Amino acid sequence: MYKAPVEEIAFTLRHVAGLGAGLAEGRFGDLSDDLVDAILSEAGRFASDEIAPLAEIGDRQGATLKDAAVTTPPGWPALYRAWAEGGWNSLTAAPKFGGQGLPHMLHVATMEMWNSGSMAFAIGPTLTIGAVEALSAHGSAHLKDVYLPKMVSGEWMGSMNLTEPHAGSDLGVMKTRAERRDDGTYRIFGQKIFITYGEHDFTDNIVHLVLARLPDAPPGTRGISLFLVPKFLVEADGLPGARNDVFCHSLEHKLGIHGSPTCTMIYGDGRFGKEPGAVGWLIGEENKGLACMFTMMNNARLAVGMQGVAIAEAATQKALAYARQRTQGRAPGWQGSGMSPIVEHPDVARMLLTMKALTQGARAITYACAHAVDMSHATEGEEARHWAERASLLTPVAKSFATDVGVDVASLGVQVHGGMGFIEETGAARLYRDARIAPIYEGTNGIQAIDLVTRKLPLSGGDQIAGLIAELRGIAGSVGASNDTAFGETAARLAATLDDLQAATDWLERALAEGRQADALAGATPYQRLFGLALTGAYLARGALAEAGDGRGRERIALCRFAAENIIAETAALKDRVVSGAASLLAAQTLLE
Amino acid sequence: MYKAPVEEIAFTLRHVAGLGAGLAEGRFGDLSDDLVDAILSEAGRFASDEIAPLAEIGDRQGATLKDAAVTTPPGWPALYRAWAEGGWNSLTAAPKFGGQGLPHMLHVATMEMWNSGSMAFAIGPTLTIGAVEALSAHGSAHLKDVYLPKMVSGEWMGSMNLTEPHAGSDLGVMKTRAERRDDGTYRIFGQKIFITYGEHDFTDNIVHLVLARLPDAPPGTRGISLFLVPKFLVEADGLPGARNDVFCHSLEHKLGIHGSPTCTMIYGDGRFGKEPGAVGWLIGEENKGLACMFTMMNNARLAVGMQGVAIAEAATQKALAYARQRTQGRAPGWQGSGMSPIVEHPDVARMLLTMKALTQGARAITYACAHAVDMSHATEGEEARHWAERASLLTPVAKSFATDVGVDVASLGVQVHGGMGFIEETGAARLYRDARIAPIYEGTNGIQAIDLVTRKLPLSGGDQIAGLIAELRGIAGSVGASNDTAFGETAARLAATLDDLQAATDWLERALAEGRQADALAGATPYQRLFGLALTGAYLARGALAEAGDGRGRERIALCRFAAENIIAETAALKDRVVSGAASLLAAQTLLE
């Protein structure tokens, strides 16, 4: 059973991602080290003791639909209420609306734990928090007053309604329409698919944020508006009143996250209300809906990255526990009597160390991204701009690398279990199934790669990425300067990987400058992976340097060295794909037509 | 829906794996080119039109157990009977027992198609054919006369009973026991788990091959005997009579291959028969059971490798069809109106080309392995020994590389589908689930790697692997000599990969010679992958060279070049893991304790 790695999470926040320095510099108000520890420790308890035990039943029974009402798995509504009452929904929200105003780093750290406990459960709150962010940034004072307090407390949940059958990554072609009414409200008509927690029995009301198109809107993404559409219209007393004309038409039958209802939502077909049309209120300006969504999209992407970390952590714990107790054969050098635990076999150790290193690397990247978000709020002017860019640069890598790691590590976890891994009751298979959605939703990892290469590399004319690489080189230099032989070849390996990152970056920047768009896009995914591996190597080294000296520190160095000498060498081939793979790819594309 | 790639399969058999030369040299009796085509074409029709349409219902309904009786999915018993009546069970068996005596290559080619149609369906017949092989090689004349004709025709199916809860990879510790009886029969007592098609409703009788231990057997693997234990005892008239004391106690709830019943079998608890004990007949000699199993184990491993190829092929077809029709965004250079098909996006093209290249590489490796099996039977003396060694060397690579490819390609297939990939009805998710067992059963891929490094590299004092590498170098040389610029950097890339293979091989041989067992085992899995990638690069080139000149040939060259310039460069990092990864791995192993 999952046990939240509170100590490791706290260490990564403080010594790898930058929370320690931030606290020391007083960047986060009166947030103290003690409070951080108390929050993490209580979150760890809740995730391990309350959420994780309900994960399996959630998977087995799933969410069910009857007469437009969704029933979540047994125990889940009570679990949600206990979670909200614990204040976990309000960590980062503004105090004005009942939030605790804590740094985003604590949000992602707790998110990791909820998702390790049960990804299907945690994805609901994730979306509510995204809706809170969008509403906070763009909603009218009235909308905020009516909705935010209940959404921050968790009394009501939110949902995000973007996708339509023909409009997934390309929102510009969506068809859901909105009509103006004289009273300043709108009526929404259309169908949305893949709406996570679009309907459920956790809360008395659900606040849908819905993208739709006005009759006179310009074509494409510049003609999309964002609306707030509550399941129940809110009365003057602030309580839910009449049913709005929106309902869940069907649930998807999915590979994983079975406890999470994935809804097809129908707006305005007249099933509820006197006249057809779901009543909606505009958020932000007409035709500026996509900009409103972008506010929360970066954070949502980072939140999905956390799901990758979370699954990887849970899979690693499970596999390690199994490998320690399962005996089979005799490993080389095994001195015990009888069979050795399979963890003693070098091949099994390779899998487990790879799982550990990738998990810690992905965690460090996502936390560093959250730190940049926090610093962009805690600073001003040029500094704030720098940190906002840093967050912007790291977001696609955090989302894609961590979710790929989630899938890969979950797959290794199944493999470590041998035949037992294929049996559902073991639980490794559930992680393998749940993990698979994360590289897809909130923008596929391919979309992230396009974003990284075409929009993030050019930040500050390339200075942002150059600055980050310089920072990482500093870490490699410190490893060399430590003169600690336990690091083995780490310094040299890391330097070589950073050379690969530099060369690939240079090449992509040149391709873009020369208008060779297809060449750049052909290398985007290998580049993204290379980026993630380079950060993994560097961040593991940063952690090892921070704790060098004592027993845990020796373990960090050993894992860092393993990653340097066994994992990150892959960057040479990835760089190669970026700088010389495009021609053969584009030449072979005709094969596919 | 899957459509068997008959032309591609025939091409690979003939021009890459060696069937063409074998036929030309008259190695396979009166087997003609026409007959090969007729067999492949009819198998393709059966797989596409009969099996594939029943895959989804098999997955959804699965196999169920009631009162020790298993019900397979609707339509499956009839499907099995049609398949057996088509003669597909008897392709390679001896004509004396009703078999067709055809080369093993046709067996694996047809196996690929059955498994692409439905892996859950095809795994049953695979095990019957393994049982036929073991019985043919080691059974007494009487046992063969009684059982083989019905097992060859498919009227009865077989099952393989090896695993026990505490004895998976390590069969030496099994506990199922056998007692001698005065009439020359034995009584079997014990429990076996993970018994595929241990009980079902396809046939009137099931012939279990069971490993068990005699009371006076030496400890470990030298004390295991193999027994034939029919579900129904066979009467003098050759028909099933009394029920034997063996039954299916429970079915596993699995991640995938739901239609395939995975049984816990109980032997000799007295549920059936007058006195407890399942009646069994010895196959081969007492305490030599493991040797009997090894007869069929290599072929079973190759058959599982085929499952990897099969899933990869099915996943590639499905993803390609989707990517051609799904439109989203505008790819660079897209000239059409509106959104472009996603296949036009370079990132999607990269996934699809990778899927294609890995599938064809895995197919070529498995077919080449089957060709070596055939040649070992079609030749004599030194030549036969050479081919037997070649088959032996290629088997672990065929099993492990192809099954890893199955998982990776199925995962890419989900990704290409975006959100639809996570919806079960699309079918991509089923392939992702089904694929995951293949790297585990019939010896995990980690076990294959140990086998490859410790038992296969030393064949003929290293001459066998050296000879293979020389052969592959010949292919790289031919690419260079072709002077066809469409090959791009293929010759140089392939040569570099073969240098990696050579260097890693040398290093492992030295480590083994010096008794550094742990060092060698630490690198076994990366070595196995490196081996598979080198063969993929070389065999794609061999195919491209064979068809150079015409339209299809240009496509082969383009895919070969893509693999050379975008996939096989990974071998440098893999070689690196072999030759310098062990120290950091073994140093970090303490972390896991």
From TrEMBL, chains A, B:
Acyl-CoA dehydrogenase/oxidase N-terminal domain sequence ranges: 38-155
Domain Acyl-CoA dehydrogenase/oxidase C-terminal as annotated: residue spans: 287-452
Sorted UniProt keywords: FAD, Flavoprotein, Oxidoreductase
Name of the featured protein: Acyl-CoA dehydrogenase
Xref: Pfam families: Acyl-CoA_dh_1, Acyl-CoA_dh_C, Acyl-CoA_dh_M, Acyl-CoA_dh_N
UniProt domain Acetyl-CoA dehydrogenase-like C-terminal: residue ranges: 477-588
Taxonomic superkingdom: Bacteria
Family, similarity comment: Belongs to the acyl-CoA dehydrogenase family.
Xref: PROSITE patterns: ACYL_COA_DH_2 (PS00073)
PANTHER family: ACYL-COA DEHYDROGENASE, BROAD-SPECIFICITY LINEAR ACYL-COA DEHYDROGENASE FADE5
Boundaries of every Acyl-CoA oxidase/dehydrogenase middle domain copy: 160-266
TM annotation in the entry: none
